[in-house]
């Protein structure tokens, strides 16, 4: 099914009310039910890995006859697995590309389409471990030059100019990026591409585009390399930043530290994505905002599933689990376990209507 862009999340709601007329827009998500049984397989985003662990534990406690596995292989691998029929749902920090949609999904009844709904909103933290430095300000151009390899030493004048009063070591920068196809990388690259296009000239994609720095597998790999290295910097889902330093990024004329609230604010004010449609609530983040209450280096992670499954017995499990994940209780669990940002009530209602129609 080839959905055309409707322009805004509000327009999607209008289309959704037509396609999903049997479901009230504010219908509550499917709650865990003790009568459920079976196995559910998911794969994808490592950024939402901590949240998935918490969701699975809570859901299986309420549904002891259900077994759920989630393999945090990375967004690209997760989408590929779902497209090929190797999983029942995918998690992805990068929305489906039109060519992926056009190719169809092995687990879905042909012609019935797919769903793509946000389930995890989180800031991307610029993490660092630099001798003698506990606070770091960076603008997009300087950040881009560091990860592209144009700035190679911590005492570079461009870094010093943004950090008056801080003494940086005369030491080489080790910039750590993801080695795997990663939606976190695509979101990070999208921020740099939109805010420093003269420096970051490669279009955003899941693979890291430059042969520079150090590569590490998955979110945990990047965090581990920054933690265990010397004079390192990287990017990762903020839930995994731990005790590492995190840089403030320049928004307008202000250096802004990440918060869940600032991440939620920029998402709420962003338009629909390129593939958005009745059952596709993808979002195009407003990366160039100058509002200091917004944090534009943010990822929206999605759940990708079928509108109608070839294996009919899988559908109730998918609907129940995805319904729980995106419910108020599920989102509260993600906030507590992974620092996820809240979704607006209007967005939650649209998600609930889409998930409740899975069959």
Could you characterize the architecture of this molecule?
By secondary structure, this protein is an alpha/beta fold. It has two domains: 9-122 and 263-356, Periplasmic binding protein-like II (D-Maltodextrin-Binding Protein, domain 2, 3-Layer(aba) Sandwich); 123-260, Periplasmic binding protein-like II (D-Maltodextrin-Binding Protein, domain 2). The protein has twelve helices and twelve strands. The strands form two sheets. Strands 1, 2, 3, 4, 6, 7, 8, 9 and 12 form a nine-stranded mixed β-sheet that branches. Strands 5-10-11 form a three-stranded mixed β-sheet. A hairpin with a 2-residue loop joins strand 10 (248-251) and strand 11. The longest helix has 14 residues, at 49-62. The two termini are 17 Å apart.
Structure characteristics:
alpha/beta; single chain; D-Maltodextrin-Binding Protein, domain 2; 359 residues
Helix/strand layout:
Elements: H1 9-19, E1 38-44, H2 49-62, E2 66-71, H3 75-83, E3 89-92, H4 98-103, E4 114-129, E5 137-138, H5 140-148, H6 157-162, E6 174-178, H7 183-195, E7 214-216, H8 218-228, E8 232-237, E9 245-246, E10 248-251, E11 254-256, H9 260-268, E12 298-306, H10 315-325, H11 328-338, H12 345-356
Helix pairs in contact: 2-11, 5-7, 10-12
């Amino acid at each position: 099914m080839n959905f055309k862009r409707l322009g805004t999340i509000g327009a999607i709601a209008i289309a959704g009310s037509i396609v999903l007329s049997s479901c009230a827009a504010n219908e509550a998500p499917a709650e865990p039910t003790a009568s459920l049984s079976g196995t559910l397989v998911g794969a994808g985003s490592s950024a939402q890995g901590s949240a998935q662990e918490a969701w699975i534990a809570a859901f299986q406690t309420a549904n002891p006859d259900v077994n759920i596995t989630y393999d945090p292989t990375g967004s690209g691998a997760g989408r590929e697995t779902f497209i090929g029929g190797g999983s029942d749902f995918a998690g992805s920090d990068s929305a489906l590309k039109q060519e992926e949609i056009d190719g169809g999904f092995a687990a879905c009844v042909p012609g019935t389409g797919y769903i793509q709904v946000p389930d995890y909103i989180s800031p991307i933290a610029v993490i660092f471990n630099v001798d003698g430095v506990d606070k770091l300000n960076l603008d997009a151009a300087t950040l881009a030059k560091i990860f592209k390899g144009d700035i190679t030493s911590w005492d570079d004048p461009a870094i010093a100019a943004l950090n008056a009063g801080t003494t940086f070591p005369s030491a080489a920068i080790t910039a750590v990026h993801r080695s795997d196809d990663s939606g976190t990388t695509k979101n990070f690259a999208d921020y740099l591409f939109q805010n420093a296009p003269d420096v970051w000239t490669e279009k955003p994609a899941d693979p890291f585009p430059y042969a520079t720095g150090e590569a590490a597998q998955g979110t945990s790999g990047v965090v581990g390399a920054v933690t265990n290295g010397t004079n390192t910097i990287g990017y990762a889902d903020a839930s995994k930043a731990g005790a590492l330093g995190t840089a403030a990024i320049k928004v307008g004329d202000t250096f802004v530290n990440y918060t869940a609230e600032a991440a939620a604010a920029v998402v709420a004010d962003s338009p629909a994505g390129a593939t958005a449609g009745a059952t596709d609530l993808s979002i195009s983040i407003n990366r160039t905002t100058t509002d200091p209450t917004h944090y534009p280096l943010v990822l929206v992670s999605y759940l990708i599933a079928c509108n109608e499954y070839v294996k009919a017995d899988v559908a109730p499990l998918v609907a129940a689990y995805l319904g729980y994940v995106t419910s108020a209780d599920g989102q509260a669990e993600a906030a507590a376990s992974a620092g996820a940002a809240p979704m607006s009530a209007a967005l939650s209602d649209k998600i609930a209507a889409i998930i409740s129609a899975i069959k």
